[in-house]
Every structure is written in C-alpha cells, then in structure tokens.
Amino acid sequence: MPDPSLLPTFEDILAAAERQRGYVRTTPVLTHAAIDAEAGARIFVKAECLQVTGSFKMRGATNRLAQIPPEGRAGGVVAFSSGNHAQGVARAARLFGMPAVIVMPSDAPQVKMDGVRADGGEIVLYDRNRESREEISNRLAAERGAVVVPSYDDRDIIAGQGTAGLEFARQMQADGEALDALICCTGGGGLITGIALAFERLSPDTRIWTAEPEAHDDWARSLEAGVILSNAPGTRSICDAILTPEPGKLTFAIGKRLLAGGLRVSDADVRGAMRLAARHLKIVAEPGGAAALAAAVRRLPDELKGKRIGVLVTGGNVDMADFLKVLLSDD
Amino acid sequence: MPDPSLLPTFEDILAAAERQRGYVRTTPVLTHAAIDAEAGARIFVKAECLQVTGSFKMRGATNRLAQIPPEGRAGGVVAFSSGNHAQGVARAARLFGMPAVIVMPSDAPQVKMDGVRADGGEIVLYDRNRESREEISNRLAAERGAVVVPSYDDRDIIAGQGTAGLEFARQMQADGEALDALICCTGGGGLITGIALAFERLSPDTRIWTAEPEAHDDWARSLEAGVILSNAPGTRSICDAILTPEPGKLTFAIGKRLLAGGLRVSDADVRGAMRLAARHLKIVAEPGGAAALAAAVRRLPDELKGKRIGVLVTGGNVDMADFLKVLLSDD
Predict the structure, then answer these.
(1) CATH code, domain with B188
(2) Which of A29, A50, A285 is opposite residue B30, by nearest beta carbon?
(3) Measured between beta carbons, which residues in chain B are less than 8 angstroms from residue A323?
(4) Do B25 and A28 touch (CB under 8 A)?
(5) Which residue, A67, A323, B8, B33, is most buried by CB atoms nearer than 10 A?
(6) Hey, are the CB atoms on B28 and A25 less than 8 Å from each other?
C-alpha cells in the first residue's frame, strides 16, 4: 500500500481544473439511438478524442508541467509514451517554454510522432520488446537535468486526468441525468482512477468499470485477485495506447477501492466500436480510445443492460491508413 | 424587400436558445496547428456535425416545432429536405409527439433516410430534376392538416439556427479571442443569416462570408449583384446538403445587409477539407458541411490571411462508403 500522501484527492482535481484553464478543451458528451440499441442500454460518450492533442493526456501533462517551478524549467522534461502522453507533454512543454524529449516505441503510429515533432518535441525511439523505456528516460533526464514526467503513476497526472471525470459528472448533472455505470479503458490507469475520485464525490452511485484488450487484461485480473498482476510479455492488440504491462502502484491503490470490475474486448469489438463512432457520433476514435465503447456495445454485462452508462472515448490519434482499414472491415 | 416584421431579431435568437434547452447540444470549437498552417490563418472550427441528428438543423427544427400550439399538433408536420433538415424535423416531431412526413430527393444519402426513419418519420421520395418538392409538400399538408416546416426562409427557423452563432460568439469571448471573420456554407442561408444576427450584437467587427460550390454560387453572385440570382438547373456538386436553387427572400434581406461576400470551392477542395477534419480534428464532416473549411484552407482571400477565422462545419451525415472514397482520395 503506497503512502497515502502520494495519492491525489478530490481537491487536487479541482486545483488541476484551475491550472488547465485556457489550455484544455471542454469535450462534448455524445449520444445516438443506434448505439443505445447496439448496447441495450443508454450510452453517453465523452469524446476526449476531441481534446487538444487528440487525447485526454493533455489534461495530466498540463497539470504536471504547470507545477514545475520556473527555476526548474531550463533542463526541460523527459517522458516515455506510446504517443498520446507524448503529445500531451510535448504540447504542455511548448506552452510553458520547456524543451521536451520523448522516448517512444519504434512502432508508434506516425500520427503520434508527427504530433510530438509539430510541437518541437525531440523523439528518441526504442524497441518495445528489447529495451527498457524507463532506463532510457532516466539516463536522458540525468544527462540533461530534465524532469521525468510519468504517464500515470503520479499524483499530479492522476489529478490532471481526473478533470475529465469532473467535467463528465457536471455535464450529466446539468442534463438531469445520473450515470449508473461508467466504462473507461485502462493502460496504467491514470485516467480511470482520476475519474473515479471525481465521481466518488460528485456521483457516488456510479459504478466504474475498466475496459481492456482480452489478451491484455491486467486490470481485470488484478481487480479480481486484489493484487497487481502483469500481462505476459509480447501479447498483441490493435490498442497501442493502452498496452501497459501492469497497473500502477498508486492507480491500483485507488482502483482497488473504487472500481467495480474489468471488461475485456477483442480487436474485432474495437473495430466495430470505431465504425459505430464514425458513423453515428461523427468522431474518429483510435483503437485504444474505442475500447470502452467496444465493451459497452459488445460486452456489456447483463447487470448493466437497460442502465445509463458513461463511456470515455479517450483518443483519436490513429493513422488514416489504419482508420481506413477499420472502416472497410465488417467484423 | 420583405415585411420587416417577418425577419428575426437578436431577441428571437435568445428565445430560441431557451426553447432548445435539453434538446440541443453545445458543440465544441476545435483548432489544430496543421489546419492553421494550411489556411495561413488561425482557424476556429465550430463542429455542428456533433449536433443532435448530425447537423445544425436540429436547432431550427426545435425552435419551430416548439411553437406549434398543442391544438395544432395532431396533423403533424411536413418538410422537404435533402436530409439534414429532414432529420432535425423528424427528431423534433418525435420529441414533441407529432407525426412527420418528409419529402426527400430520391438520391439523398442513405444515412439521412435512415436517420429520418429511425425517428419514425415517413419519407416521400421525389425526383430532384423533374418534380417540385414544394408542390408535393403543400399537397401532403393539405391532405393531412399538417404544418409545413420550411427549411430556411422562416423567422423561427433562422432564429433557431442562429443559436449556433450565439454559442460560437460566447465561446470565443470565454476564450478571450475575437474573430476577424467567419465562414459558413450556404444553401438557403438560414444558418449564416441567423449567425450574422447573433454576431451583429455580440461581435460586430466579425465579417461574415458565405462558402458554396463553385458551380452553385448563387449567394456569391447575388451578394455581388445586390439582387437574388439563381443557379442554372442541373449543376452538380458532392455538397448535397447545400444545393438550394437560390437565396431565400428573408435570408437574402438579412444577408445583403450583414454579409461581406462569397467564397467558392471545388469538390476537390471539399474532399481535402474532409480529410483534414478527420485527420486533425477527429471529426466526420459531410461534403456540404466541409465547404466552409474548404474555403478557409484552400481559398482564403489575401485580406483574411493571418487573421482569426471562425468556420462552421455544419453536418456529418455522409454515407460511410462515400466517406471512405474521400479518405482514399488525395486531390
């Protein structure tokens, strides 16, 4: 159990929302009867693919970098990421006047590398299966006097992502709706646990579920076991954004207390959700970003049928060639 | 010059916003550096493709139908439309408990017909080149005792669409930005003139431009001539949503006073804008809905270079097969 002082609070999320003002966009909540019909439930989609940099990661990066004091900014920041955290950090670094170096897997989508470079970020590639991105990042940080910006297991990152939950809960309240459940994809778990902390205060009856690739179900198994379990190395999925080896220590401490359980989706489920999102919601979702919608429309547990379900679509950074393949598929 | 009492006022737009509460969504304003670079200006995109029913038309339909008194609702409503007004009217009719019959061209996109039917609307098809949709609508209305809901040349429709402008101007104010110009596609002109009335009050220095297919440039020519001019019959464009024969009488009376001029785009420009919108903004725009973005990124007049330009992306109701063809194109 981590030191409780390392865990974010609801008040940290409120403070993050203040820091994000002017940098982060309020994303809409979208609905469509055809998606409700597929799911057998009422589905409310918060479209974080429409966020600045194309994913929710801008929220945490802004909150973290805003708190680096001016005298600590010269050495810049280092982050490792498959691409969405990378873009969030690169953008926040540019806005706060810091250099950024990002350690990315050599198979990251081109659109994510382009996003980092467009914000002036320097990319260092590594081999996902042979090299340790943590070691590379720590070495770079030591060489440059840079601040390492973790992608999820960090109080300020979790609180920063949690503003998506703050917004979502308030949007539902404004519409006079209360969510019975919420589904969010999980990599390291920074977003879902930030959201869970926001909902604990604002909508405590909403039960919160993870969504993951079925071969990469570390959160589902860890929640079932009550301890952190890892994925077998080398498992594959189209959901590049959420292939983290295991839950974080901080995020799991929060998740164990606040999450209801885990849902598993196949690549075909994800493609189906991406097609539905484009056709009916008019949004471009990336594979990892569509995992929770896939769980809602294809794998919804019986206990959630007929209920009001919140779904996070977390990112839209997919190469157009891959997006085309998905639209052409019919599985 | 039409009777001034037939023209909507800013106060009518405020009243429309009240009537729309709970039926219409606040759509986000999206930006991306790559789009700014293409345009040579700062582009702020209001994404009405994310509106309920997939286009701004829900705004006007809600405002119009909300004002039909209970004793007038039994006969239902009749509308003619290529598809977006159709869906707005069908949805509003369902919400207000009225039957709806929609006169649609036989070549309307499938997704638009599906949308009407999903809301319980009855579709009567007509041949765009041989039959008069006005005559068919009037006959149906007489037979059924139904209210004809015009698609643009109507005080309540214009005021209802104008709430998109109210929202846009307020969103820009909240972000501390002022638009130098705004570009909006025009069919009959209900949206752009409603927006112009909202901006006249809230952002009077913003100059407002139409965007149209180059072979279907009735607004541009009419504004240049100072009188309503028509398109030659049978002109073709992929922008199915905005192929209206000529400006409306009410909308032109407003437009003549408040619009700066007209921009013309090719089908290739529109495809390019649809690709940019998907890749960078993560939205699905239909061809007509992307015409203003096409004008911004491919046909921006020199006087608007370097300025802050608002752009309406007005709808996203495109058949997926057609959307795929656009993503595969590179013109």
Answers:
(1) 3.40.50.1100
(2) A50
(3) 278, 327
(4) yes
(5) B8
(6) yes
Closest CA of chain A from B177, distance in Å = 11
* A271 and A323 inside one domain: yes
For CA atoms B89, B93, B95, B99, the dihedral sign is: negative
Q: Which of B132, B148, B164 is the last residue of a domain?
A: B148
Q: A44 with A70, same domain? A: no
Residues of B whose CB is below 8 A from A49: 282
Instruction: Give pLDDT, residue A234.
Output: 79
Distance to chain B for A175, nearest Cα, Å: 7
CA distance B293 to B300: 10
Q: E strands of chain A, at which residues?
A: 29-30, 42-47, 77-80, 100-105, 122-126, 147-148, 181-185, 207-213, 259-265, 308-313
Q: Does residue A31 sit in the same domain as residue A159?
A: yes
- The alpha carbon of residue B136 is apart from the nearest alpha carbon of chain A, in Å, by 30
Residues B296 and B224 in one domain: yes
According to the model, what pLDDT value does residue A298 have? 98
pLDDT at A130: 87
Contact assessment for residue B13 and residue B167, using Cβ atoms and an 8 Å cutoff: no
Report the residue from B30, B279, B283 with minimal CB separation from A320: B279
The partner residue sitting opposite A282, judged by closest CB among B29, B50, B328, is B50
Q: Tokens for A91? A: 């953008």
Residues 6+ apart with CB under 8 A from B44: B29, B30, B31, B172, B177, B179, B308, B309, B310, B311
Regarding whether B203 and B86 lie in a shared domain, the answer is no
Mean pLDDT of A281-291: 98
Residue B277 is part of which domain span?
4-55+154-328
Structure tokens at B10: 């800013």
pLDDT digits (tens, 9 = 90+) for B140-197: 999 999 999 999 999 999 999 999 999 999 999 999 999 999 999 999 999 999 999 9
Same domain, A207 and A309: yes
Residue ending a domain, choose from A109, A128, A148: A148
Total domain count, chain B: 2
For the record, the structure tokens of B204 come out as: 């009077």
Q: Do A119 and A184 belong together in one domain?
A: no
- pLDDT per residue over B22-72, tens digit each? 999 999 999 999 999 999 999 999 999 999 999 999 999 999 999 999 999
Q: Write out pLDDT tens, residues A70-85.
A: 999 999 999 999 889 9
CA-closest candidate to residue A65, choices A54, A78, A56 = A78
Q: A316 to chain B: which residues are within 8 Å by CB?
A: 282
CB contact under 8 A, A283 and B283: yes
Give B4's pLDDT tier (boundaries 50, 70, 90): confident
Question: Which residues of chain B lie closer than 8 angstroms to A30, CB-CB?
Answer: 25, 50
Residue A1 confidence (pLDDT) above 80: no
Which helix or strand (DSSP H or E) is residue B10 part of?
helix B10-20
| Residue B204 sits in the same domain as residue B303 | yes
Q: How far is B281 from chain A (nearest CA, A)?
A: 7
Find the closest chain B residue to A30 by CA distance.
B50
Give the chain B residue nearest A326 (alpha carbons): B324
- pTM for this entry: 0.96
Q: What residues of B are in contact with residue A33 (Cβ under 8 Å)?
A: 118
Contact assignment for B275 to A111 by CB distance below 8 Å: no
Measure B262 CA to nearest chain A CA, in Å.
28
